[in-house]
Structure prediction request, 615 residues.
Amino acid sequence: MSHLLTIDSETPPLAFSKGKTLLEILQDHGRAPESPCAGKGTCGKCRVKILAGELSSPTEEETAHLTREELGQGLRLSCQVIPSGDVHLSLMAEKSQVHEILTDGEMPEISVAPWMAKRVIPLTPDALKSGLSHEALIEKALNAPLAPGEPSLLASLAMSLPAEQVTAICAGDRPVGIEPGDTRDQMYGIAVDIGTTTVVAALIDLNSGRELGCESAISPQKEYGLDVLSRIDFVRREERGLRTLQEAMVTCLNELAFTLARHARISIEQIYEMSVAANATMMHLLLGVDTHSIGRAPFATVFSRSQSLPATAIGLRLAPFARLYCLPGVSSYIGADIVAGVGVSRLAQGKKNRLLIDMGTNCELVLAKAGTLTSCSCAAGPALEGMNISCGMRAAEGAIQDVTIQDGAITLDVIGGKAPTGICGSGILSAISEISRVGLMAKTGRLKKGADLGFDAASLAPFLIEAEGKRAVTLSSGPQKIIITQDDIRQVQLAKGAILSGIHALLESMEIPMEALDEVIIAGQFGAHLSVESLMGIGILPRSLAGKIRYIGNASKTGARMCLLSKEVRTEMEEIATDVHYLELATKKGYERLFTRCLSFSETLEAPRPRSRCA
Prediction:
């Protein structure tokens, strides 16, 4: 029996059958709120407000995340509610919220020599009258055979000839399409960074190398899980899970491509290649390759090498003979996005000791010692993306991104200059750095009692409050109360311990002391919002490295752009992927002890200084 779901005052209502949760019903219709835990009820983020309907009783997961007052107001977790009749609800999340997504990145100088190229072929009247097939005419003019089994190529031959000149579109040395006339000035590609959270696409002129425009979006896969493990689990649980996630991403890429073409006033059929950098799971999902092997021991990928295939093979709507190029990765944890970062930062060049850090839900590290590359991946958790945090949110309008506590007052830097509605990852680190600096928190991460605040008690005590029987720090008491709880601090503490222990494990494996690092390079969406003071304040890096930190922005997108523009860079990226050694932290002797030491908010494990001796 079919029932109806009405969202706010929208019409028409959506039909559904009994037995599914509200989250699953909303996912079926593309209207689901974010569900970072993939519907397990552990994150408490997929809230909806029930206006009317017959529903299952609140579960233990709901009572853990929602107060009695909130439940009384109709708030429920959509992943826990199973309707037994018609439902009328209101979505809590703002779909139109403007997010702050990093699109720019440091771009090294390269020689423009794209893999995709055009070659004009003049055809004489005698050749056109020879009676040869169009295929034979082009092969004779090119002095090379056309690739067999390319329907789009044959179709373009039929549309282009007879003509006095045509343009061959070549992928490397192989013609993949023919166009009438001389179209060499119309040659574009799209460079894409597919992150777990965001998608960034840039339109590139393949003749000049210029970036003509850039568009971004929140990943449409977020409704099925915030992190890669949640999405791998979704693929495993749902019969059409893999197809659902692939179609969501391809639709997003097509929409971004269409917007880029429209803004640049070019035809979508003038875009001949899309180059993509992504982590291993996102790359598998894009190509429709099952991810089950990544999600279980020994955590192997199905493929790691670069892939080049017709764009139409996955449903991309570009030129009919456009290609899709996927950058190479190293392993299930070190993907093409990190290979791109190594290439963009020129990490392996020279004799210096350089550390590349890409922070996010996972933190990937690559250490270079005189050109030798060793990497590892740290499970930093979703706290750095603002998730699993009581008032956490993404970097969007209303998110606190920086916090200063001075002279008994708190100053908040809020994205968009609006009243705060939550706090994003960089804001969390900034807040905890300040909480530690002013003495509200012990180095163990435990919030102090008012009686333990010392001589600053009068100015600091008002920040300490009780929240559900536990100590917390209040940042904002306006219309939207923003607090940092003890559990929030613990989430960041675990992330800090994972990152710092990963850094030390790499340094130890390469026999490099911390002070011998010549440069620390920070890449990625999260890193761009993170101040040096926050990094030092919670002890991820020692203060001695403050003058050695360089930010390179969205290196994943930049690496994809470089691969669009240079055959030489593609070769370099392939070599990087084979040169990077992977260090498995779980098997490193003494790692658990190292991780425990790194949990302290003052512990950076710098080498102890020699004690002075008494005369």
About this structure: Residues 383-491 form one domain. DSSP finds 18 helices and 26 strands in the chain.
